[in-house]
Amino acid sequence: GVAVVQRLTAAARDLGILSILDAKRGDIGTTAEGYAVAALRPGGAFGADCVTVNPYLGLETLTPFVREAQAAGGSLAVLVRTSNPGAGDFQDLDCGGVPLWQRVAEGLAPLLELRAILPRAQFLVPGYGAQGASAAEAVAGFVPGPRGAEGGVVSSSRAILYPPAASGAASLDAWRDAIRTALEAATTELASAVAR
Length: 196
Known about the structure:
- This protein has ten helices and seven strands.
- It is of the alpha/beta class.
C-alpha cells in the first residue's frame, strides 16, 4: 500500500496534479518530524502537496508540518471537526460555551493565521458518498465564486474505489469500468451542486 501511494504521488507530481495525503497525522516530537518530512518534503517518502493532520494532541504536533509545508510550498488540511457519527462524543463537548472543535479552530488561527492570510482558503470536505452526505450537503459551506460555489475539495474515497458494481466485476476491465462510472457520476453530481 505504501509503495502504491508513493507511485501515485510521484505520478501526480509528474502530471502537475496536486496530491493530498489523507494520513491524519498527529504525534509529537521526532515522530511528528519524521511524518512531516516523509509526507511533504520533496524527495521524501511521499512528497505530497498537502497532508491531513490531527491537532488533538496539541498545537505542537503541527509545528513540523507547518515548517515542512512552508519550505516546500505545500499546505496542510487540519482536522477540526470530523463527519463520523461518533465525532460528537468529544468534539461537541461544551468548552466554555462553545464546542471543543470550535476551540480547536480558534487555537489554529494564531498558529496558521488561516483566514487572515487565506480568506478564501480551501477546505477538505469528507462525508460525501459512502459516508452518506449528498453533493449539496458536501458543498454547503462553499462560498460564491466566478464559476459557482468554491472553497473546498470534496473527498469521496470509498464510493469511488469500491462502488457496488465493482464487487460483481468478472474481469479487471469490468472493475475499472465500475470505478470509472462511479467517478464520472460523482463528478457530474458535484459539478451540478457547485453550479447552483
